[in-house]
């Protein structure tokens, strides 16, 4: 007790509220909601923000994470889109409390290096997946190597992809690939409409795996390679690996973690 002031020796102080930067998709309703949140909670420039609050769908969350690759600030998404698997429910009330209690999940993107016929290499980062797709009516023919060892001499298919755990519920799931919990140190290697080997359904790989695709008969059967929204046409070779040196943080409401959503998706009717 401070005898002079009559106060306790220790005073409990409330932690300062995080500074927020709000972003929204082009959807008018999302922009209107964004303005209401800014008016209510304030806004700071992106460089000064503790947390980014993104309003939109899963596509906009992916866009926000890409624009945040250098600053690597935590992102809390609220659903104002057609798909919101990566988003929290939209609610304007109690946002500071939700952020204080939110669970955080770390994502690591994939590095894609794609070589074209001239020998030039084009590189991009993918938060969801790196995908190879045939460019014409003819099927693609790919040689697949893992850690410098050939595992498939010839995969005849529409394409093939490598998905992160975050991307396992996107294109990978549509291609009948496995759903991977975010904390699993794994990648999904999933064929797209495989014709030969007919029974091959893909593989689960360690997150340390280095995947190489060699395009066979590249002139006759051209193939494109895409890292999320970055595309390279007429590739001859593509290498994919995880970038552990880049960490992106997504925030989910307490009790509504990504892992819980993954489980719910797998047991959905």
UniProtKB/TrEMBL annotation:
Keywords: ATP-binding, Cytoplasm, Kinase, NAD, NADP, Nucleotide-binding, Transferase. Belongs to the NAD kinase family. Gene3D superfamilies: Probable inorganic polyphosphate/atp-NAD kinase, domain 1 (3.40.50.10330), Probable inorganic polyphosphate/atp-NAD kinase, domain 2 (2.60.200.30). PANTHER family: NAD KINASE (PTHR20275:SF0). The active site is at 58 (proton acceptor). It catalyses: NAD(+) + ATP = ADP + NADP(+) + H(+). InterPro entries: ATP-NAD_kinase_N (IPR017438), ATP-NAD_kinase_PpnK-typ_C (IPR017437), NAD/diacylglycerol_kinase_sf (IPR016064), NADK (IPR002504). It comes from Brevundimonas terrae. This is NAD kinase. Its EC number is 2.7.1.23. Its cofactor is a divalent metal cation.
